[in-house]
Structures are given as structure tokens and as C-alpha cells.
Amino acid sequence: MSSTTVVSSVRRFSLCPFCWAYLALVSLAVSGAAGLAQDLSGKPAKIEISAKPLTGNNEQGVTVHVELRDPVNHLAVATKNIEIEIEGRTDKGAAEKSKVLIKQGESSASAELAVKTTGLVEVTAKNPQLAEGGTLIELRKPKRQPALLVTPPATTLESLGATVETGSAASAPATAPSAVPVRRRPVPAAAMIERAPASAAMATPPAVALATPAPSTSSLPNAKPVFKLSYTPKRKLRAGEGDAATVWASLQGDPAPEDMKVAVWNDVGPAVVITIPKGEYTAGSKLVGTYAGAVNVGFENSAPPPSGSSLPERFIIDFGPPIWALKLVPTLPSINLFESTDVTVELLNSQGELVATDDERKALLSFDSGKGELDSNPVTFHPKESVVKTRFIPTSTGSVQLRVSSDSLSAVTAIVTVGLPKLLIALCAIGSLLGGVVAFWTESAASWHRIVIGLITGFLLYWAFVFGVVHVASFAHAFVINPFSAVALSFVGGWGGTKVITLLLKPLGLEW
Length: 512
Fold this sequence. Notes:
This protein is α+β, with helices and mostly antiparallel strands. It folds into 4 domains: 32-141, Sandwich (Immunoglobulin-like); 225-320, Sandwich (Immunoglobulin-like), CATH 2.60.40.10; 325-419, Immunoglobulin-like; 422-505, no CATH class. 20% of the residues lie in helices and 34% in strands. The chain has 8 helices and 26 strands. It has helices at 3-14, 17-37, 155-159, 422-442, 449-466, 477-480, 483-496, 499-505; strands at 46-53, 61-69, 82-90, 95-102, 108-114, 119-127, 130-139, 148-150, 208-210, 227-232, 237-238, 245-251, 260-266, 272-276, 282-287, 293-303, 315-320, 325-330, 334-336, 341-348, 361-369, 372-374, 379-381, 387-394, 398-406, 409-419. A hairpin with a 5-residue loop joins strand 13 and strand 14. Helix 4 packs parallel to helix 7 (483-496). The longest helix has 21 residues, at 17-37. The radius of gyration is 42 Å and the shape is elongated. The relative contact order is 0.07.
């Protein structure tokens, strides 16, 4: 293509305003989609924790470090104070609880959790609006130091006031430079110190001798280790790389005599290899669920191999759809007091896309400000649903802030502005007065009071149509709130007079 052709094409394109409008709309759609995809980035969605034994005091327990993470495991900053409940549960069922506060603007905090027993402890951290976090830690009683055997030095005898007879080399201390007669102080009668035999003297006797404990046979290289497998956190995990399970191998006896490798098979991918470092009791490795469903996990092999009579039992890790957020969308963000609107609740993944649930899930709506009613609350997501709706009916004017929350998902809000339908009220009054005037002119015995009665009954009839007391199948609600309908319906009510009241009482089952 020549340069002239290119320039000509550009000129033709620049002369087409519809093309530019189309490009602008595409650009807005793309930028909007990008903003939606990044909407969950940096926002708290889950809890990650780590634990280590308490040090520096006499208490038995753990120090727990809690962090906020977004769906892709990046650190997230709290937009408000977040209280997290920590629980430590031993393999014997004993439980201890504590709380930690992550302040607004921070992403982590630490707390101490007292645990009165030793053994394997599962530590969990929970908040109703975040995905639960968990870890395992082995608590052991601190080992006592070996007993010390102390041989008092030769100079101790002199410090106790003993008299050493001279004249014999055998009776002189081994550390004496020569056998020179030395007159010592007499031994007190109360101090009876038995002199060590001369043959026991050594050229350089040690001051302290440490007792060496006998080696444990269980730490020998050919020992058969006994361990068990587990995983954390104990909840339904989201499929995908952002929410992995940690598979743990825990030794039940002595610590690992050397680096110990444990292979764990699963039915979603290659075996998970766990390495328990030398001298440690537990270690873990991540397992990612690539699809929603139950994942079977079991022991494959280890080096050294375990005892044949105590192979670890297999278990199941449950992965669900990657539901990370809620979205609340009113169909009409601005309505008047005579109207209502549908409110949609959506389930989203970490990219801001709709994702269906695989089991029944409930979402609870509430009002942070303003007043109104909801047709159904809580709303229920059935399997394979990602969107549910309920109808919002305002009961006062002003800004109404709706909130929706669901288990382990952050609550979100939406605002519906409710205004006073001044125009419809004015048109209704005009139509009612016109109906009353027509009735006053056409009814022979009517007085001016008939106009006032028409004003009242015209408004009553229009109210009955607006709120469904009187319903005509072929007459949609949108037609009712049309300005021309406001005049026409109120005119009929003003002209009908008190007969309108009788008409309205019949659908209610009342007779006057």
C-alpha cells in the first residue's frame, strides 16, 4: 500500500464521527473491564498465619503471626480495624483461644496463644468476612541439661583450713612446685575432710566433667519412623493458585535424625514432596487444586521408609469454585418513592468475573442507612447459580445504603437514591381536582364539597394503582407512573367520588 493510500484512508476515517465514537466506546469498555479485573487486587480476602513456640518465659504456647492477603497471595492492607480469632487445638482435642487486632492501614499483627499440653497443635485464624488460615506446629517439653559432676580443685583444701603434713612427696599436692616443708593452720575439729589417695592425683585434673547420655536407638539411621499426614486450613479451599492447601508430615517420636523426605500422592498432579529437616518434627508443602471437587491425598513413600504397621491414612481435601468476592448492583440507582427496583447480588472470582457456586450459599442484605423493604432476605444461591435478585421497596426518601455479606467473603455496599415524586404528586392533584369539578358540574345535587371529595378520592385511586391494590394485567407499572397516567387515573378517581372507596375495599375483602 502506498503512502498516498494510507493518508487517504486516514482522512476518510477521520471524517467518520461514528467511527471515532465506536473507538471511544471500545476504549471505555476495555478500561472498565481492566478496572474490574484489578478490583480485588490488594484487598483483604484471606488470612495467612505462621507459628513458633514461645521463648523467653516459662509458659507453654506459641507465638502466632497473622497476615492479610488478597486472592493472589499479595499482602493486603486493612481498610478498617479487623479482629481475628485465633484458636490452638491439640491432637487430644484441647483448645485455647485468643484474639488479635489488625489496625486500619496495617497488614499484619502477632499474638501469643497459651497451650497447656504438648504434641501436635493445629492453629487457626478466623474472621467472618475472610477465608480462614491455618498451620501446624509441634510443641515439646524443653530438654533438661545433663547433670554436672564436679571435682573440687586441690586449692579447696586450703580454703577450708586443712593442715597438710609435709615430708612425703606422695602426700603433697600434685600442683606444688617442690616438696618444701610448709606449716599450715591446724584443721578445725568440726571440719572432717577425707584426703584423697595419692594415686588419685592427676597431673592436670579437669575442673568439670560432663555426663554423656547414652544414644537413643530410635535415632539410628536404620530406625523405622512413625509419622502422620494432615493438612491446613480445614475448610473448603478455592481452586486455583491463590488458595493452596498445606500438606503436613509430622513425626510422632524423636525428631528427624537426618533430612527426611516424604512423598504424598494426589489425584490432581505430581506427588507433593515434604522435607522434614534434621532435628525437626514437622514440615509442610503446598498443594494447589486445579479444579473444583474432592482431591484424594495419601502416603506414597519416604526415605527412610516408615514402620509398616503404622502407615499414614489417606484423606480428602475439598476444593470449590474460586469465589472471592460479592457484588451488589441495583438495577436503578435512582428511583422515586412511588417506584421499586431489583437488587442483584453476584459472585465473582479474583478477576472480577462471574463464577457459579457448586453448593447452596446464602447472602444477607442489610441497611447501613435509609429505610426500605426487601422481597426476600437472605437471598440464596443454588448450585450452578452466580446471580440472584431481590426487590427493594423504599419507605422513605434520601440515600439508602444497602450492604450484602456472605460467609468468608468481604461485605460490599451499594447506594440507591430515593427522591420525592413532586411532579407526579402535582399532576395527581391536578387530575383529582379536574375530576371533582366535572362531577360538580354534571351532578345536579352536588355542592362545592364535591370538588374536595374528588381531590381525595382521585389521589386514593392513583395510590391503589401505584402500589398494586388495583391491578390490571395489561397495564404495566411503568405506565402507571407515566405523567399522563397520573393525570388520567386521578381524574377518574376524582370523578368517581366515594364510589372509589367502595371499589378499593373489595380487593381487601372489606365491605362498607
